[in-house]
Amino acid sequence: MAALRSARVLCSARVPLVQRCCVHLGQIRGFASPIKCKAAVARGVNDLRVEEVTVAPPGPREVRLKVHSNALCHTDIYTLSGQDPEGLFPSILGHEAGTVVESVGEGVTGLKPGDKVIPCYTPQCGEPDCIFCFPPRGKRTNLCPKIRGTQGNGVMPDGTSRFTDAEGKEIKHFMGCSTFSEYTVVADISCAKVSETAPLDVCSLLGCGVSTGLGAAWNTLNIEGGSSVAVFGLGAVGLSVIQGSKMRGAARIFAIDMNPKKFEMAKELGATDCVNPKDYDKPIQQVIVGMTKWGVDYTFDCTGNVEVMRAALECAHRGWGESCVVGVAAAGKEISTRPFQLVTGRKWTGTAFGGFKGRSEVPPLIDDYEAGRLKLDHYITHRFHGVEGNLQAVEALHSGDCLRAVVTY
Fold first, then answer.
1. Residue 5 among the catalytic residues
2. Annotated catalytic residue within 24, 64, 73, 120
3. Residue pLDDT, tens place only, 91-104
4. E strand or H helix at 104, and its extent?
5. Distance between CA 224 and CA 247 in Å, rounded?
6. Mean pLDDT score, 139-146
7. Percent of the chain with pLDDT strictly greater than 70
8. Does 208 qualify as catalytic in the annotation?
9. Active site annotation includes 144
């Protein structure tokens, strides 16, 4: 009874309606109930439908989130189009979002109803015995494997789903996030709690793409001032690599894409040279090397095309050039190059989520945005509303003129 009286007091306080509802439903243990809501369900390859789904209460160490905004990422399209070998149907896609905690399961600490959260597809368990989260090796990577197995199978850590359709049939989770739904359930170790004032529509971009590009420049290759950089592919990820490189003081930045419409934005973010491979009759790596003396210090593939990955490596500087694979290749694709490229000092590496540890390192990025140190608004080229807006966002992303389409529910 005391808990009920406490909830009534909280609900009568001057707090936002969403937050009051979250407190009523979630702060009293055991009172969370299944929620019926809209979701865009991927029934099969290129088959995305808006349906009513039931979202179960969170289990132990789980959090149910009310999704405020979702930014469409190319990885969602990649899976929807059937190119992802781990893609499962039916499932609820989406993994770039700004959300509010609706209720928490048993054992959750540090999160409460009403908190703003960015779900992160790379979890951070933070347990002292996790060599991926703690030094000496923990400082090298963000790839905590705590829930990797179940996340890849489209289920929660206990092996079950929190989504069912109108017929009571199970719907799979996606990347541990599933934000094409008005409500979702995620593991608590996948939740990055952000400031109370964070604008969730803009900050949703930091759930994947923009963070990945910035982190590839800052964390994975750790580029330094005065260096040269080449970025292949000028979507939101590639442009964020350019932005991050400029913020680090790179002296020369090559922006490479076959769509010249993207060059204006690239220049605004810091590109010094814009190169269209269609303008040349020889391999683009030879073109880039010819525009330098020995190649480029740091190169990034943001296309997912394995031939472009090779080109990025082969225009890296002789002796010390480093090339980072950022784009996700289609199922079954392999990369190749002549071993001599590596024998002569080049390094080939890759990145996931830009090396950022979600729970501890995403919130400072949002602090930087709110303080004006990190610009994000320019990535949002399209806006839609309601879960149905995800279908429109898919069409927009295929148009070639869309960096990020943000859907507000």
1. no
2. 73
3. 999 999 999 999 99
4. strand 97-104
5. 10
6. 91
7. 92
8. yes
9. yes
Q: Where are the beta strands (DSSP E) in 310-402?
A: 322-325, 347-350, 380-385
Cα–Cα distance between 134 and 169 in angstroms, integer? 40
Annotated catalytic residue 173: no
Q: Could you confirm whether 148 is annotated as catalytic?
A: yes
Q: Hey, what amino acid is at 301?
A: D
Please give the Cα distance from 409 to 103 (Å, whole number): 18
How many helices (H) does the chain have, and how many strands (E)? 13, 18
How high does pLDDT run on average in the chain?
92
Q: Could you tell me the domains of the chain? A: 2-207+376-408 (3.90.180.10), 213-351 (3.40.50.720)
Q: Is 74 an annotated catalytic residue?
A: yes
Catalytic one among 208, 302, 324, 402? 208
Separation in Å, CA 122 to CA 54, 146, 362:
25, 10, 11
Q: Both tokens of residue 108?
A: 């959750």
Type of residue at 215: G
Rounded distance, CA 182 to CA 179, Å?
Answer: 7
Structure tokens at 49: 């439908």
Sheet with 252-256: list strands edge to edge. 273-275, 252-256, 228-232, 298-301, 322-325, 347-350
**Is the pTM higher than 0.70?**
yes
Which residues in 139-158 are b (16+ Cβ under 10 Å) and which e? eebbebebbeebbeebbbbe
Residue for token pair 């199922």? 331
Is the omega angle on the peptide bond into residue 90 within 30 degrees of 0, that is, cis? yes
